[in-house]
């Protein structure tokens, strides 16, 4: 951490500030330039409140040099983490690529079984399905809840696909015992109480980036889970909120290589939520595969026009089949 | 709701779509123009999935005409809601203006009592203090929790100021029994499970806008609480995330008159979090008072340079005193 | 265009508004619902000021149904435009893909010739080089100007590569007579006076999206050029400004398929400016190729560490060579 | 400027980098910490390309300590600049507050004279009126151009109000000889060729912030004008582009105190363009006056419903009169 002092600060004030830093167990390095005087802080600065130092009368600005995330940081863990899911040990990361597919929400036994069989046949290696649904309106369908999870488990049993489902409240964790990957949705990505509880589990977590979350914040949220001892985390970029309204969100595709540089955790793309339009899902999936994503999560519905949610962004099984084939080809091309 | 059809749609397809709308209990109005054909939907369209209709082959676009929020909507409740807090019935809205002040977090008995007395003397009418703190880093101070609430209650008893504190998880609701206003923070503004639980209470809720929440989404979140029967909601604009980095967030000051138009609920401003800098808190408070806000929530600390959080944006009691006096003058000027 | 009327509007006011629309040469269609009354306008509504109608006392909101761009609109020109550049008729669009490469700015004869030869050898089909440079600071290198253009022309003569260079002011148009493609930079994308002048030329224009330009605005700017009779336009997505600071801008990769739907003009990607980091240029180029872009424009410098501008985002010729080979493979995979 | 080196950099590489900095006339200060090694650069670092240094193999990141703007920087010019306009020497800044009012565009002699008289009577001290109009669509009214300027001058002669009008192209500068303040619109705020030409004039410039311009960029654009010797600049915040669509733009009200801290130049607010809605203009004007703005620029039209542009955001003279009275009261309250 670097503290830049205001012009005109006298030596006594500088000495006093340096003494204060020393009292916090830090060493300092003083650099006095023509226009600016800088104090470099050496030691563990993660506990220092940068905003507070910046508010001191003689301080002009403070700049952090080291990132506040440790466990998620590639600097301290150069090797890529491989997250293994389910009994079949389906792998994400370090060259392992998976496609998660399934409906936005579980609607009925027939629906989830039909879709599960179809996406498996087309090449999906995990099944997704929402049982607890975060909806902007209290008047919209809120999911089948426990019953939905039961149906998902039935689909898992029949097809052998590990399952992914979203958790919205810590009190429902017991219901997710046999769910293979617990998803944290974009709206809960800074629900820290929930993240802490997930840190206690020993089960892979699919952590979605918040709609206005920075990459650093995403890694700090991963850090919350990892601080509890659970380091099986799959990060997911799902579109961010910008001024552009032609698409529902803006897919931040550069998050893939950028996150790969910042962290050792696997990174997947959700093109369905990023664009909100079924016809953009394929091109965005191909882009993700081309630039090194570790996987995709895609909404597929047997009858999108009658889906209870997100029908507009859901592919039919046939469309998904075409997509999966093309994704394979692109992955071979960049291998 | 309006469905605009694609060019070249034939009459049979139009008839079939109209029939489908009728089967959903809606009436329709067909308008065939030179370039576009439009079907207007008449009746209760809140249950219609606009995205889904838009994804139909013959539909070019869909536009909602009526807002999806009902209980929070001023159209259906023209009179401004007055939220009354505590036994003293401190009022927000319809011309009633209040200043909530206090530290970011409760740190000790002495600290909270000192600040409580000071802000009361300066004109604050409610006391704020965090006991459960949402922190970006798992390694930062997470609040005094239950003990912090106890100290807040002690400060309330001594000063008579009603208290406001943030709740992060529904399981802690019992601890908030004697807290006068429960705050929902920006990061939880779409934690729908939490909002539903708050709808069951009969206690005022201070609902902060999410860092990237639209005004409509804020009202939909209020709607979640109101749908449960609790209509004692104070909305709070606290800065939104934009590309500008000179200030921590960008205070959306036009949200005050805009929300007053959209909803009957009171609207207050949090200049401390909006700017992140103590020296900007006064000018932003004056701006808020000038444009019709129903109150302010301001961070005040007896010793900002040693605060455990948000010291950089906290005022001293002396600074707060000056601010409160000026705010009064501005309110008189616009009365 | 649709005008939604306020509740409680009486029949006389409605009749009077309808009469006013008729006086403007429009036909109307009235739809009276339970909660809302809507007037649909039929005819040429491009001249109607939507904001003005919306400000009328009895009008609640106005929604445009048809896009304000005509010549750039795919609806009226279903076939993709092929832009042909130079005597060699290098083609962009409708399946034709080109890579433009070269330095941010022309710095010397040796530099531009070295780079030109290298990028040609690696597979670039056009040469870029800045002679007039838009720099945020007036104290930064502003380009070699006319002399830079001369050197570019020399490189064109030797290598046969058509050249692309940025124009910042209409008064310099005569200097660009032998430049094959005139580039309009992000900062000038709504410099309407300049766009009008370019509409008078019969030369391809590379139009970059503004840093906060919507896709609609980009097409309106193209419309300015096309309205003058010049329809040889190549659109370029080069990153937009968002809240995320990990990358310089956020590459809006979904603009590729979205623009292909909205317009018949070719769309290329500039991964260098979008990310600002050389090491992200390759993955973003592969993503662009995978999702159907019609080309790339990439900064290449023989000695990035001594470049006069944008060294941080420039590839070496060797890196560019690797990139070009991979891009080819991805294009084959998605063909 | 500070260069943070990557972990594992050996001493020889460090020495070589230090030597390179010395060769550029800079002195250095080396700080070697537990986890990071930092080189501080001392001397004139404005010419150093931070991005380039950051791209070096051994450099992790680079942070600028001093701002790149000098002439506009309050650090080097602590006293507030007072901009004096016209023969009457109407003053902006250092406590001097002015209201500029008038129509979006000059439409006819009668219109501009009527509005000029009305706004003068209501307390406006300058008259605005557009003759050259930047319109998103090439098919919209583009202004009366030279004829419009003539009519403005006539209104100036009759009322004595100094006039403000927008310039879109340097070639029209001669037409603006008798215009008192030349406005640079948001879309041209980084039209550097135009800014350079304005630097040659000795006439006040009203420089609007770009729709996605940072405060630093705004000051760099002011620096372009000042570098030419013209330091009579009035800065104008007019709303920025964010994700929120309830208002046309988001008024960044905190830009007022923030700019006052960063620069000595006066800062005014344009509430008309910021919100796009006439009914929000008054509350935003009061907010601006309360937080210390040096003036306002407001659109007023004698017949908003028939205005050729921006009718929706224009006040009637009566509404403007009420606003001006309230603004006075707020200014007195905060004096």
Question: How would you characterize the overall build of this protein?
Answer:
Four copies of one chain form a homotetramer. Helices cover 33% and strands 18% of the residues of chain A. Chain A contains ten helices and 14 strands. Chain A has helices spanning 11-23, 50-54, 109-122, 146-159, 192-199, 215-227, 255-262, 271-275, 278-290, 317-334, and strands spanning 2-5, 27-32, 37-42, 59-63, 83-85, 90-92, 98-102, 126-128, 163-166, 181-184, 205-208, 233-237, 267-269, 295-299. Chain A has an eight-stranded parallel sheet with strand order 13-12-11-10-9-8-7-14. In chain A, strands 2-3-1-4 form a four-stranded antiparallel sheet. In chain A, strands 5-6 form a two-stranded antiparallel ribbon. The two termini of chain A are 40 Å apart. Chains in contact: A-B, A-C, A-D, B-C, B-D, C-D. The interface between A and B is large, with 47 and 47 residues.
Which tags fit this structure?
homotetramer; 335 residues; alpha/beta; eight-stranded parallel beta sheet; elongated
Q: What is the alpha-carbon Rg of chain A in Å?
A: 23 Å
Low-confidence stretches of chain A: none
What is the terminal separation of chain A in angstroms? 40 Å
How would you sum up the major sheet of chain A?
Answer: 8 strands, parallel
Tally of alpha and pi helices of chain A: 10
Order of helices and strands of chain A: EHEEHEEEEHEHEEHEHEHEHHEH
The rough form of chain A would be described as elongated
Assembly annotation: homotetramer
Strand content of chain A: 15-25%
**Class per helix and strand makeup of chain A:** alpha/beta
The proportion of residues forming helix of chain A, as a percent range, comes to: 25-40%
Largest interface: A-B, 47 and 47 residues
Overall mean pLDDT of chain A: 93
Could you give the order of strands across the largest sheet of chain A?
Answer: 13-12-11-10-9-8-7-14
Query: How many beta-strand elements of chain A?
Result: 14
